[in-house]
Specification:
Blueprint lengths: L10 H4 L13 H21 L3 H28 L1 H9 L9 H8 L9 H28 L10 H7 L8 H4 L6 H28 L16 H14 L4 H20 L3 H4 L10 H17 L3 H30 L3 H4 L3
């Protein structure tokens, strides 16, 4: 059900609010999704000889998207600070603030060769912000009783975000110097990520189903496993059996959840919330490509190529649909304002 069709009486005045006051912080995930797809194509270039320009274009687009989102959100902070406070305090939407430090940790990777100082600074801000955000969310959950119906996949972003911390370290030349920090982040992210995954999975099984507009976020459930696989070799020095088990669970979940989401275009209208599928799919594609390189055989290579194709098509479709809506002046409709 589209919640925007059933507004309270005050909706008329809310509709006159500046459109940027309704801009969701979760849209930062779109830049991370495009950047993750760029990383996948970079791996495809290195391992399979695919064109290098594709990854360069996607990296540039992801950075432009992030800068545009940052400017728009700063404008929102200036014109509607109360909207940001409400978003932060929301039991589900507040978790999406974790996408900002995740983007800061991952987007600098292609910048490292040419702008190492800027890349390192962005990563450092993102790493510190991510660990602080995870600590704040866990503290908030333990301080007050939570409602089980608010336990949705967005919760995983808060606690599994630190798994992303080690990913950029090799590109920044910091893998050895910050090994203990990377190990700490991976341990915290995996432990609490799996714990929250179990909680959310239980809620999905035994409680009322989430609203249609929340369905794209289901793919976030795969993130701790696929990103965990990519982070383990950086921290432990090799792709051990444990890391491979994480990948297998993640790919299994991708198959199940894509089957569940096959009716998404017909069950709810397009919103920018659909971008929630981009980063988890990109993370699964990167992990599959890394596994195909570590364990080269026809099956693994076909799985990686299939995921690369599916993720590319989905991200392109999201970009085209979003751009078309913006050109038609549908921003308020796309963000559900």
């Amino acid at each position: 059900m589209d919640a925007t069709r059933h507004r309270p009486p005050v909706a008329a005045s809310a509709a006159r609010d500046p459109v940027l006051s309704h801009l969701p912080v979760g849209l930062f995930g779109s830049a991370t999704g495009v950047g993750g797809l760029g990383a996948a194509w970079r791996l495809a270039h290195a391992y399979f000889g695919m064109p290098a320009w594709i990854s360069d274009v996607l990296a540039a687009v992801s950075m432009l998207m992030f800068v545009a989102m940052a400017i728009a959100y700063l404008a929102k902070a200036a014109i509607a600070p109360q909207a940001i406070r409400a978003e932060w305090n929301h039991p589900v939407g507040g978790n999406l603030f974790g996408l900002l430090p995740i983007a800061l940790m991952l987007l600098p990777i292609p910048l490292a060769p040419t702008l190492p100082g800027l890349a390192t600074s962005m990563w450092a801000v993102g790493a510190l912000g991510c660990l602080a955000f995870t600590g704040l969310r866990v503290f908030g959950w333990m301080r007050a009783r939570q409602r089980i119906d608010t336990a949705l996949p967005a919760w995983i972003i808060s606690v599994a975000g630190p798994i992303n911390l080690p990913i950029a370290l090799p590109a920044l030349g910091l893998a050895e110097r910050l090994h203990e920090l990377a190990l700490f982040a991976l341990a915290v992210g995996l432990f609490f990520g799996v714990l929250v995954f179990a909680l959310v999975f239980s809620r999905l099984l035994f409680e009322a189903p989430p609203p249609d507009e929340a369905l794209p976020a289901l793919l976030i459930l795969t993130a701790p496993f696929t990103i965990g696989y990519s982070a383990c070799p950086i921290v432990f020095g090799s792709s051990a059996s444990f890391a491979q088990c994480l990948l297998m669970v993640g790919l299994f979940l991708v198959c199940v959840l894509i089957a569940l989401l096959r009716h998404l275009p017909s069950c709810c209208p397009f919103r920018v919330s659909w971008w929630a599928v981009s980063f988890p799919l990109a993370a699964a594609t990167v992990a599959a490509l890394r596994f195909a390189q570590a364990m080269p055989n026809l099956v693994n290579q076909c799985v990686a190529a299939l995921l690369l194709g599916i993720t590319t098509l989905i991200v392109l479709a999201l970009m085209i649909r979003t751009l078309r809506g913006l050109l038609r002046g549908e921003l308020r409709h796309l963000i559900g304002a």
